[in-house]
Amino acid sequence: ADLDGDRLISDIKRNVSRPIAFDAIMRVRTIHRRESHGLLRHKQQATSVERFLPLQQTEIQYLQNSPTFHLIQQQTYTSGIPYEMNGHRFDTNHNDPGVALEIKHDDKLTEEDGVYVQVALLYTSCGGQRRLRVINLGLKTCSQMADLYRSCDLDTTSPKPVKENLVNRCAQMLACYRKNCASPSSAGQLILPECMKLLPLYINCVLKSDAVSGGSDMTIDDRWFAMQAITIMDVPSSVVYFYPRLIPLHDIDVDSNEIPSPIRCSSEKLRDDGVYLLENGIYLFLWIGLNVGMEWVQNVFGVHSAAQIDIDRTELLEIDNPLSMRIRDLIEDIRIQRHRSMRLTLVRQRDKLELVFKHFLVEDRGLDGSVSYVDFLCHMHKEIRGLLS
Q: Where is the Gelsolin-like domain (predicted)?
């Protein structure tokens, strides 16, 4: 109870209080020529780019009674034939998991028309009310391959999680860019698209993750948990899971409410007189250097040196000073951002637990022999040159 009690209570509270849907049916419609009699916009998700989608008149009448949507205008468009994916049924659903879809097209797409996608979720609320949630998305199309690489969204690029396939696909994508889009340059120079400069880093992180590679020190239960966890992660959760956030705390501004900017996830960035918070959505570590200032340690831990810190604690002491309150508020803010409560683990420099902490420094060479980011980048360069030769 002392070790996991608070985390268990927090997870139970979240599970029973989050929105839950029953008997849900999801349908995906796509169309590249605008059609029908109305345009709808989601009030809560309106951005600088308005996302419109045509709907059938019966759907408009249904949605006009919903407080979430409102009718923008009535208008008639040229006819087009929408494509509808067969409904996917969920017995129960909540707001934490992500849903991944692959959409292919057979028709010719033009840059003028664009593509429109609609996801509709019909479900029953906890109160027994039948509801409809609609998400509309308008996408541009392009005829030049350079425009495709320039506009890609790296955080939603998702190759199959098979080691060889990941490396091959990454090399093929970057070789295709080098061949068709990049300016002529020396063969010894690695050329990456501006929006995909971090793709090799992400691929290496996926290959080194517990869900894909695991390790001899992992139990079957831990490996299964990691594999199941990534299958329902949304994009922000998966990004921080594969590339953890490493946040320096030794020079934190106590007057700011913002989370400090994270640094690169490498042991080269750690200072002996520093304190760093590392989180990946599942684990939360506080690494304390042996030479951290006595005043900082006194304000946060209530002792005079890092050697006196009780690393078995799972929560920080509630000390009445600005630095202590700022650090505790920061940890709570990070926990709120995640779908599960993360237990705080204190790690002192050169202690045994530091090996566990360094496992999450994904840019370094792994303790199991997995390659560092720099070595993987060199390997990718070699693969690309082999494809182009």
A: 258-328
Query: How does residue 139 score in pLDDT terms, banded at 50, 70 and 90?
Result: confident
| 30 DSSP 8-state letter | E
Measure CA of the first residue to CA of the last residue in the chain; give whole Å. 61
In contact, 32 and 121? CB cutoff 8 Å: no
Q: Give the separation between CA 42 and CA 253, rounded to whole angstroms.
A: 38
The string of pLDDT tens digits covering residues 305-317 is 999 999 999 999 9
H/E segment holding residue 89? strand 88-94
**238 half-sphere exposure, CB direction, 13 A CA radius:** 24
Residue 37: how many other CB atoms lie within 10 Å: 15
Q: Are 259 and 327 in contact (CB under 8 A)?
A: no
In whole angstroms, give the CA distance from residue 230 to residue 244.
14
CA distances from 387 to 6, 74, 188, 297 (A): 53, 53, 14, 54
Which phi and psi (to 5°) does residue 73 adopt? -165, 160
289 CB-near residues (< 8 Å, 6+ apart)? 250, 270, 271, 272, 273, 274, 275, 306, 349
b (16+ CB within 10 A) / e for 169-192: bbbebbbbbbeebeeeeeeeeebb
CA distance 109 to 213: 40
Question: DSSP per residue over 202-234, as a string?
Answer: HHHHHHHSTTTT--TTS-HHHHHHHHHHHHT--
Q: Please give the structure tokens belonging to residue 246.
A: 């490493």
Q: Which helix (H) or strand (E) holds 88?
A: strand 88-94
pLDDT higher at 221 or 114: 221
Domains of the chain: 18-139 (no CATH), 145-209+372-388 (1.20.120.730), 244-358 (3.40.20.10)
Decide if 254 contacts 326 (C-beta within 8 A): yes
Mean of pLDDT values over 193-199: 92
Query: 279: part of which helix (H) or strand (E)?
Result: strand 275-279
Eight-class DSSP state of 339: S
